[in-house]
From TrEMBL:
Belongs to the UPF0702 family. The chain crosses the membrane at residues 6-27. This is DUF421 domain-containing protein. Residues 87-219 form the YetF C-terminal domain. The keyword Cell inner membrane does not apply. It comes from Carboxydichorda subterranea. It is a multi-pass membrane protein. Keywords: Cell membrane, Membrane, Transmembrane, Transmembrane helix.
Amino acid sequence: MPQHAWLHPLSLAAKTFFFYILLLVVVRVMGKREIGTLSPWDLVLTIMLAELAALPIENSNVSVVEGAVPIFTLLVTQLLMSWASLKSTTARNIIAGTPSIVVKDGRIVEQELRRLRYGVDDLMEQLRQKNLPNISDVEVAILETNGQLSVIPKSQKRPVRPSDLGISTSYEGLPIPLINDGRIDYRALAAAGLDITWLKKSLEQRGIHDPKEVLYASLDSEGQLFVQEREPPGG
């Protein structure tokens, strides 16, 4: 066994860890974006980042610095592109593209489908996913720059809302999570104007004597406490 051969696996592990942290930081700096809603620019950027990070890990002749410089270059480029998109509509249209109307007044815009090379079958599939299988029920369908289809049904085909019937409704905010996997969220408890004494008393009223027995507990906007206990081991 060559002298210091054991250093190579450690070096490889260190490189892998470094580029994992680096990519994590870079992606966080670039902003939140779901994988399913990536624009062409974001998709190309993601692929390039993965390739650039893999190169120094796989090739021992490529140093950490040589691998990190292209990644930082992409980060700066992406930030500049984002800045340009915010400042200029023209730049945003060039970088991200523009939405396209593919259905209007219940009729397919055939010319736009041909320009986008987007098949009728693809359009119908996405409409079915929106529970609108009938083209005539669609007021407008817009193909967004990330490939998602936004659909506005005709007024007669939209679900009935309380406002349509003149019914007033009370405010419904997001529930506040108080316990997650047996751990109490003290900050959320304080934000709700409550304390640990109230929480333990509320749990005891349900026959729960230890918050660790709770899988999830939340408080809704009406002050109602939802509690789900853990399942017993082997249950």
